[in-house]
Amino acid sequence: MNDTYDVIVIGAGPTGENVAGRAVRGGLSTVVVESELVGGECSYWACMPSKALLRPVAAAAAANHLRGVTGARLDAAQVLKRRDSFAHDWKDDRQVAWLESAHVDLVRGPGRITGERRVKVGDTELTARQAVVVATGTRAVVPPVLAEVTPWTSREATSSHGVPGRLAIVGGGVVGCEMAAAWQALGARVTLLARGGLLDRLPRFAGDMVAQGLRAAGADVRLGVSVTKAARSSGTVTLMLDDGTTVEADEVLAATGRAPRTDDIGLESVGLTPGSWLDVDETMRVRTGDAPAGSNDDDWDTSDWMYAAGDVNHLALLTHMGKYQGRICGDAIAARARGGEPTVTDRSSKTCVPQVIFTLPEVAAVGLTDEQARDAGLRTRVVEYDLGNVAGASLLRDDYTGKAQMVVDEDRTTIVGVTLAGPGTGELIHAATVAVAGEVPLDKLWHAVPSYPTVSEIWLRLLETYGL
Asked: In terms of Cα–Cα distance, which of 91, 136, 141 is closest to 111?
């Protein structure tokens, strides 16, 4: 074990792994510091276990909506066992082996920045010649009203080895909607409580369709309500709501947002605020001061050694975007170590973020909503089409219900945003991502002929509706 490296990465989740891999590929010696499991939140408590829970739910729902197939049922014990296999039984041997194969050193323990290019892990002092990268991700936020009842967070919701009889979920975002779908299907009686609607950051139709789907599956979905008091007695949690009603449950899931894991990593030693999100430039360098009024991104002061990639910079709290930023970050550090400047910078984290929400039905989106596009000064036109009217959708499911929406920049005739809601739409979103990221003019996109009969024919229908 050395004590001096070119690059020190704090956090061995997918983002940190990608930073390290690209830095090594660029000829830099690299060490990763990790206080928990190598592989991070996504591998053990988020993306992989949650989708392992949700895939059987979607498969059973699809089968039960095809004439000629009857009685598709879930075996909760087998679903949980399969989930465990995707989380590798919460052991990180395989991920550690990958670091070794990539020639990345590992130091276990909480890392703290102690000064410029210096990180302390227990009694070990590490020094970076080139860069320290913060890739510590986020943690779940538990609102004070729920703190005393010891609620589940996303970690317990994705790793529980038993199905609660009654599960109350507080929060109508991605975690709340996905876990409502999973645990309702596995046998829990789910009550989902949302202060507003569901998936409020997306076009309203998406949240409305998810609410309908969850209710059809048996969940009690209550919108426009807030918890005012919570108490636990003899194993039962009682939630009092601002509409005067109460909800009783065996477990309650706090799905109310995320906070950066920066409260105890030594930010104060370099003049930054512990517990804050870290602002970055397009190469993931940390911004160290305020920009002058009316200035652009180039006017910010940035560190010449400190970087932050992934959820911790608050640009896009999604694993695939963290990995994308990690690749940019590692390449940028390597380029600067050679005395140059990076040729690839972040062009997607603000305007072209794809995501899939594995609910009933699935929701997939990329780019800007119409409201966001208009706020950015674009002249837009919104085009919508009923997904159920596409031939491939009717073959996929007898009662297919879905909707597609694209937002067009009228001045450039390019697509700046797409939202899809319906079974299987997650597999459609990358085509939309290519169109948005590539700024493909609609008259060129018209020549990308979709195969018949697939749900991808939605692209032709949207373009025809637009007028091509």
From this structure: 136
